[in-house]
Design brief:
Blueprint lengths: L59 E5 L4 H13 L6 E4 L27 H8 L11 E4 L4 E4 L2 H10 L18 H16 L1 H6 L4 H22 L12 H17 L14 H11 L10 H11 L71
Parallel strand pairs: 1-2
Antiparallel strand pairs: 1-3, 3-4
Helix pairs in contact: 1-3, 1-7, 4-6, 4-7, 6-8, 7-8
Length: 374
């Protein structure tokens, strides 16, 4: 989850200047391995409201940053399940300082629903003494303006299990009961070795810490490659929560993790099975149409100024290959199971075409962008 203290991940925007300014934040502690703080606000929004926050359409706002892989998960799940009309979404810009994410994409730099310029304001309304990281994704209670939860692993599970009354017709079952134990096991390994593994490489404060993180990352990627050589999806024959969690890291791999975080044994595009798997998902409605490559690169290369002091954002890599045929359909599988693909994103949530895969004619029905392949 994108965080603002000595640990950070991702965010979102297009033309924002570096928001890091005179207070850029610090991400690497010399001589130490990177350890993520996972103490989140664990309040849940449930059907029975046992934590004081019942499921109620229109009451909550999901605050995200498009470049953040942890927030990107919630965007994908919300879209696949068709929760757009039940849970509104606010977007922070891709750059920030050490204090807070900001709503610099909105007119006047103020979220139009929450009426605040900084996400930190919603955290302080929940706890005036809040001193931990201001992270995305966060779900905010609109009536009080206070953060309900920033516990990103639980947010998507609750979208899947607690908000079923508001799922769209044809919404897929992303966390099927008979596969949950296996999904949880796969997710645990993906989180420790891959999702967080790239950060352990990028934010390593010593050679030894980096070497160990690098070896663990690519050992797990090789294991996942072997698994996915035999089956189209990570668990079962349909897309599940496990695929969503792996996808958001793979989508950022060549753009930022390979170079910026020194995860450079191989590019994703040089790992045939994982590359085909990632393209399969990217070309599936609800996945690639949520990815903003411009914002991804802006966040990592600008905000992590202790890793990239010049804050120069690279022009590459070439992204057109995300739309090349993947051949994964030969493995069978049913992407949405008994469900159906989601409709195109609502107009206000379409990723700008120039932030996405370069265009080359034709029509992409999933993203609304023009392109030659699907």
């Amino acid at each position: 989850m994108a965080r603002l203290e000595p640990v950070s991940t991702s965010s979102t925007d297009s033309t924002s200047a570096p928001a890091s300014g005179s207070n850029p934040g610090k991400y690497v502690e010399a001589g130490s391995e990177y350890v993520r703080d996972t103490k989140y606000i664990e309040t849940r929004i449930t059907r029975d409201g046992r934590d004081g926050y019942p499921v109620e359409p229109g009451r909550y706002r999901l605050v995200v940053a498009r470049a953040c892989p942890w927030a990107n998960r919630t965007i994908i799940v919300r879209r696949l399940l068709g929760l757009e009309s039940a849970i509104s979404m606010g977007m922070c810009g891709p750059t920030h300082d050490a204090d807070s994410w900001t709503f610099d994409l909105d007119p006047g730099g103020v979220d139009p629903v929450l009426k605040i310029p900084r996400l930190k304001d919603a955290y302080l309304r929940r706890d005036p003494d809040y001193a931990k990281g201001v992270t995305v994704p966060a779900v905010v209670d609109i009536p009080t303006g206070a953060v309900v939860t920033n516990n990103f692993p639980q947010i998507t599970i609750d979208f899947e299990l607690e908000w079923t009354d508001y799922h769209r017709d044809g919404a897929p079952d992303l966390y099927p009961e008979d596969l949950r134990e296996e999904i949880d096991t796969v997710n645990k390994g993906v989180y420790t070795e891959v999702n967080n593994g790239v950060y352990r490489c990028g934010f390593a404060g010593s050679q030894d810490a980096y070497d160990k993180a690098y070896d663990r990352l690519f050992t797990k990627l090789d294991e996942l490659s072997d698994r996915l050589a035999r089956q189209r999806y990570l668990v079962g024959d349909t897309i599940t929560e496990a695929d969503i969690r792996l996808f958001t890291t793979l989508a950022r791999f060549d753009a930022v993790y390979h170079g910026h975080f020194k995860c450079n044994r191989s590019k994703l595009s040089e790992m045939p099975v994982l590359w085909a798997y990632a393209r399969d998902l990217f070309q599936t409605p609800g996945f690639g149409d949520t990815v903003d490559f411009t914002q991804i690169k802006q966040h990592y290369y600008i905000v992590h100024s202790d890793i990239n002091p010049t804050q120069i954002v690279p022009k590459g890599p070439d992204l057109t290959n995300w739309l090349t045929p993947h051949g994964r359909e030969k493995l069978g599988g049913r992407p949405f199971g008994e469900g159906t693909p989601p409709p195109p994103p609502i107009p206000a949530e379409v990723v700008p075409a120039d932030h996405w895969v370069p265009l080359s004619g034709g029509v992409n029905t999933a993203s609304g962008h023009e392109t030659t392949t699907r």
